Amino acid sequence: MIKVGINGLGRIGKCVLIQLLESTGFSIQCINVTSIKITEIEEYLRQDSTHHYNKNFTFKIISNTQIALNEHKINIFSDRDPKNLNWDDYGCEYLFDCTGSFLTTEKCSSHKVKYVIMSSPAKDSTPTYIYGVNDDKYMGEHVVSGSSCTTNCLSPMLKFLNDKYNIADCVFTTIHAVTASQFVVDIPNNKARTSRTCFNNIIPHTTGASKSIYSVLPELTGLVNGTSIRVPVSNCSLVDLNVQLTDTNTRVSDIQTSLLTNPLYSTVFNVTDKNVVSSDFITTTTPTILDITASIDMGNGKFKLMLWYDNEWSYSAQLIRLCNIMWKYNNNNDNNNNLIIQTNINTNKYYISNINFENKNVVLRLDLNVPIDKNFKVIDDFKIASAIPTINTILNQNPKRLIITSHFGRPVDVTMKYSLYHILYCLIQHVNKPIEFLEDCISIKTLDKLMKSNSKIFLLENLRFHKEETNSENIQLDLESNPIVSIYSMLGDIFISDAFGCVHRAHMSISGIKEFELKQNKIIGYGHLIHKEISYLKELVSNDKKILCIIGGNKISDKLPIIESFKHLPNAKIFVAGGLAKYYFPDTLNTFVMEDGMGNTDTVSSPCYISDIKNTNLNAYDIGYKSKKQLFDLILQSDIIFWNGSLGVIEHDFYKNSSLELVNFLESNKQLKIIMGGGETSSIISNKNSNIYVSTGGGALLEYLENKFTTGNNIPGIKIYE
After folding, report:
1. CA–CA separation, 104 vs 430, rounded Å?
2. What value does the mean pLDDT of the chain take?
3. Contact 36, 82 (CB under 8 A)
4. In angstroms, rounded to a whole number, what is the distance separating the alpha carbons of residues 285 and 266?
5. Which of 229, 241, 225, 231 is nearest to 295 (CA)?
6. Residue 570 confidence (pLDDT) above 90
7. Cβ(351)–Cβ(140) below 8 Å
8. Average of pLDDT values for 529-534?
9. What share of the chain is helix, strand, coil (3-state, %, to 5)?
10. How wide is the angle at C-alpha 558 spanned by C-alphas 552 and 559, nearest 5°?
11. What domains can you pick out in the chain, each with its CATH number?
């Protein structure tokens, strides 16, 4: 049962409440309403000038602070200060904030409740999720935004069109019903057109839908622009969508047919070919309704598509669907395998979204071992960017302090070459907050500095400047006898690991923190990155879908265990490419090896075609056209692609071309789930919005898979949470 509350009983709050009465699986615990008295609620709910809903609900006032609506016993609050509202105490877990007043994670954190869903676009970096668009990317965040009604109408259609036909350009106009922010008569305010009466005016207005669309469909950034006009109708709106597809052979009949067979048809999508008007869509729950007769097919992939939506009712329905997705994810209830990914990790206890950081000292172990140039500038900030969601989750809960720790290189002694100070500026840019550097690393000086400092966020010097970090096998004894281990444990009340690239190592800051939990009652946990990585990899080891494992590169000793593991996985095929293809001989029918290639005696000589790479004195530095065709055919027969290692020499301008072609081919087949093993190969993915998931793992990823395939066991940095 999903236990929910509603903050604000205006248009959206009321629509959410009425629909929850008809929804199974929800228990309404509390409502905060300040505009009407408890004795006026029944009349307010039974009367509505707009919507046609079932008004045969039972209503009873139990006390001055509690009502009964059907089977729901609902506690009634009346307070504008969230600090006075104890949602938790009344069993509420998910709160629909329908006030429009709490539009940042910081403000929503004032609510004493576990999860908050904003019924408006956020004014900060709060993650935005829309059912039918990106709800599958929900990662357990405590505060989310459901965006706007217009974005809930437009973004499902844009995702559908882009996934199937590719969008080249898009402009839209929202013809929007009046809202409560407008006025019935003109008021003296010449700065806003909405100060004019909504009764008899068509009012040009702005819309934040474009920006909101980019937050849920980042791959469309720069391609979507729009505006809005307010018209004098009380409800139901229309999006006039002008779109250019790259697939110029597409016709409007193709779009209609594809929508009718879409899994989300009748829930998110609908199609009408009737001569309808706006009032025909009042109290409909589908947010994206394509009006075929009002749309125009202009040929060459150009369309004017008219999309109806009930900007109150269908939007409220979308918020409820989003809440359901959040609950399923957070409770590991895998009723829908397409939307929920489970892991073997005990998420209820150790996952970061279930830990309270307020007023706590937090130590966060990251993998900040990023490449730098000769001037000590960060070359690739991928690992730093991947850690930001976890950092934000901690900071949004107002900890007393956050200390970020990491290794950097493999130093044998203390040297400036391996100082984490080199990445401090890049980290500050990503976090967008001041960070103080703790140059004395794990020491009494650091403890003294922390006591005197007013800073909130710190970066600790390289952990590997201490031998205790890597020599942690006797961590249980060292916890009491070794000053370095003891001081490190004193740095925090909570120790979070999000260094997936290091979870295969039995180091003090990775697996050694288990002793802090067992011996000192410290709280330990893992972050969003580890959760995401394991969620993706879980699909490889426990999925009945067709898997293709593409293994490239030169080091056969590193890749052989993975090849051997995948060979015996049901529904899996392996394609071996790169330099190791010359020396690998398949012994199973589901293993394929690159046969032809491009190369020469060295990379300086002009490339030539090699028809048989195993019977030549030449070196194959890239895949040949016959093997490439075989590889692409295998991809089209698969559901999940795991790619580790390039097809050719990635540093060479010519021999990297096939790997680039493979990236483009994979990105163009958006129905595929693609996992890349990171490393140098990931450098060729220039599109930050690529559908290829790039792991931060490397050795950790390969060791995780090898262990899972051979023994079923986990690696040290994951095992401690089981």
Report:
1. 19
2. 89
3. no
4. 9
5. 241
6. no
7. yes
8. 88
9. 35, 25, 45
10. 40
11. 2-126 (3.40.50.720), 149-312 (3.30.360.10), 347-529 (3.40.50.1260), 543-690 (3.40.50.1260)
The answer to whether the beta carbons of residues 462 and 407 sit under 8 Å apart is: yes
Supply the pLDDT for residue 344. Answer: 38
pTM: 0.54
Instruction: Give the residues across from 31 on adjacent strands.
Output: 6, 76
Per-residue 3-state assignment (H helix, E strand, C coil) for 460-495: ECCHHHCHHHHCCCCHHHHHHHCHHHHHHHHCCCEE
Q: What is the 3-state secondary structure (H, E, C) of 39-94?
A: HHHHHHHHCCCCCCCCCCCCEEEEECCEEEECCEEEEEECCCCHHHCCCHHHCCCE
Longest CA pairwise span in the chain (Å): 91
pLDDT at 335: 35
- How large is the angle between the packed helices 556-567 and 699-710, nearest 10 degrees? 40
Q: From the candidates 149, 153, 441, 502, which is the catalytic residue?
A: 149
Task: Give the Cα separation of 304 and 296 in Å (integer).
Answer: 5
pLDDT category of residue 678 using cuts at 50, 70 and 90: low
Strand 457-460 to strand 401-405: parallel, antiparallel, or no bridges (unpaired)? Answer: parallel
Mean pLDDT of 254-271: 92
CA-to-CA dists, residue 385 to 46, 126, 382, 390, 598, angstroms? 50, 16, 5, 10, 36
Q: Among 116-120, 239-243, 263-267, 284-288, which stretch is predicted with the lowest mean pLDDT? A: 263-267
Residue carrying structure tokens 């990445």: 423
- Distance, in Å, from the CA atom of 681 to the CA atom of 642, rounded to the nearest integer, reads 13
Structure tokens at 87: 């949602």
| Cα separation, 636 vs 634, whole angstroms | 5
DSSP designation for 455: -
Identify whether 608 is a catalytic site residue: no
DSSP string, 670-712: TTSEEEE--GGGGGG---TT-SEEEPS-THHHHHHHHHHHHT-
Residues 162-171 as b or e (16 or more Cβ within 10 Å = b): bebbbbeebe
The confidence score (pLDDT) of residue 43 equals 95
Position 343 scores a pLDDT of 35
DSSP state, 265? B
The one-letter amino acid code at 672 reads: L
- pLDDT of 706 over the 70 cut: yes
